[in-house]
Amino acid sequence: MPQQIVKRRSRGFICVNAHPEGCRGNVERWVAGVRDNIPNGGAGPKNVLVIGASTGYGLASRIAAAWGCGAKTLGVFFERPPDGDKTATAGYYNTAAFHSLAQQDGLFAASINGDAFSDEIKRAAADVIRAQMNPVDVVVYSLASPKRTDPRTGRVHNSVLKPVGQPYSNRTIELDSEKVVDVTLQPANENEIADTVAVMGGEDWRRWMELLLAENLLAEGARALAYSYIGPEITWPIYRDGSIGQAKKDLERTAADLDAALAGKLGGNAWVSVNKAVVTQASAAIPVVPLYLSLLPLPMKKKGLDEGPLEQIRRLFADFLCSGEPPKLDESRRLRLDDREMRADVQAEVAALWPQVATENLRAITDFAGFQREFRGLFGFEVEGVDYDQPVETDLRW
Ligand code: NAD
Question: N or C: where does the chain have the smaller number of CB atoms within 10 Å of the terminal CB?
């Protein structure tokens, strides 16, 4: 393919293309952030499977395992490859950059691009593990998907982001028009809740772990992790107590079952890690959350507490996975990385600003500009050091 100049194209707020060099810049920055920078990383995991490994928390986990611990990694994700002059998705370019940097540094990396919910992709992952990275000592489950086809029934489940039980009204940013508006979200019905649990709950994580256990692909002391969110009360009706929250509760129940299975067979563990709110493609799609994500960085930056996915996952590895100690869990057996976000002084500042935000002062009193920049950054745009007037190769492979 001849090289081409790639300018950001958007449909409303969403970017519909991605910039390979910008994505590479992001991956390089994260690699630099963990390289030899995880205390005791050498004692950390050596073979790591990351499901949902191409963007957000999953990509951060994969990078931390590889450059922080020297681990071999297998990444599973669902991304669109380049097609003629159409660019690939950002997660595809992130992965191309990951492989190129891993190769430079002599790190083993394998990737499978396909539907992680399917039996076929699970079997393909098991084959790679058996041949090249047996046994796996850490499995990270970091999928965020709007739908799932159940391989046993062929049924397609669509998840919804709705409150449960009663309508929820709050202010939100209408991202396309940059207006602050009041929204009322109607509650999910029983079927919608069940579908959301089928997509984002623990069933698929369980199927992955059962396969790995049955095929003897897990190490003594293997650990499995899945990610969740709790957040402040102001977002509970749409998150913690909403349809997605029901799925996350199911994930926690699954963690308890998997923990018992792994402990019994291998002396291993399964945990849910509660992470901080960060700007990702998944989180920007949740109503009301963009307003929260435009306010949260203000107190967190001022207090020197702000973290993105990479800083969060670096802490996960340093404090919980590589420390050599049994990790400290909360009363519901969860790892907590959201302690800084949830600090009373941080939340008090967010709560004080919340009712003041209006369309007219959105950019003046919130960090909406930072939210927008970070969001565009996810697609490789507005990344420092990239010359967007230069043609780039978009037809990348690994
Ligand atoms: P993300 O959108 O950045 O990443 C989602 C990943 O899932 C990508 O790698 C994508 O390719 C992959 N994926 C989606 N559907 C797939 C499929 N069918 N098959 C294979 N791969 C598929 O999302 P994220 O925000 O990093 O979320 C990851 C996890 O972290 C989720 O469980 C989310 O709830 C949790 N979490 C997110 C936040 C946040 O603020 N973003 C906070 C706490 C917890």
Answer: N
> Is 55 a pocket residue for ligand 1 (Cβ < 6 Å)?
yes
Q: Which of 26, 112, 279, 280 to mutate to test the pocket of ligand 1 (most atoms within 8 A of CB)?
A: 280
Mean pLDDT score across all residues of the chain: 96
Q: Is 10-377 in CATH node 3.40.50.720?
A: yes
Name which residue sits closest to atom 34 of ligand 1, judged by CA.
228
Q: How far apart are CA 184 and CA 197, in angstroms?
A: 23
Say yes or no: CB of residue 144 within 6 Å of ligand 1.
yes
* 229 assigned to active site: no
Q: What pLDDT sits at residue 342? A: 98
Strands 10-11 and 14-15: antiparallel
375-396 pLDDT tens trace: 999 999 999 999 999 999 999 9
Is the previous residue joined to 327 through a cis bond, with omega within 30 degrees of 0?
Answer: no
| CB 211, CB 260: distance < 8 Å | no
Ranking 4-13, 59-68, 84-93, 375-384 by mean pLDDT, the lowest is 4-13
Say if ligand 1 is within 6 A of residue 136 CB: no
38 lines ligand 1 (CB under 6 A): no
Q: Is 195 in the pocket of ligand 1 (CB under 6 A)?
A: no
Residue that the structure tokens 């230069």 belong to: 390
Find the 143 Cα to ligand 1 centroid distance in Å: 4
Phi, psi of 230 (to 5 degrees): -120, -60
With 0-12 / 13-18 / 19 or more C-beta atoms within 10 angstroms meaning exposed / middle / buried, residue 345 is: exposed
Q: Which atom of ligand 1 is nearest to the CA of 289?
A: 40
Q: Where are the alpha helices (DSSP H) in the chain?
A: 20-34, 56-63, 69, 90-104, 119-132, 190-200, 203-214, 243-266, 289-295, 297-302, 309-315, 344-353, 362-365, 368-378
At 290-326, the pLDDT tens digits run: 999 999 999 999 999 999 999 999 999 999 999 999 9
Distance CA 135, CA 126 (A): 10
CB distance 199 to ligand 1 below 6 Å:
no
- The Cα 176–Cα 2 span in angstroms is 33
Q: At 307, list the tokens.
A: 């973290």
Q: How far is the CA of 33 from the centre of ligand 1 (A)?
A: 21
For 169, the 3-state DSSP assignment is strand
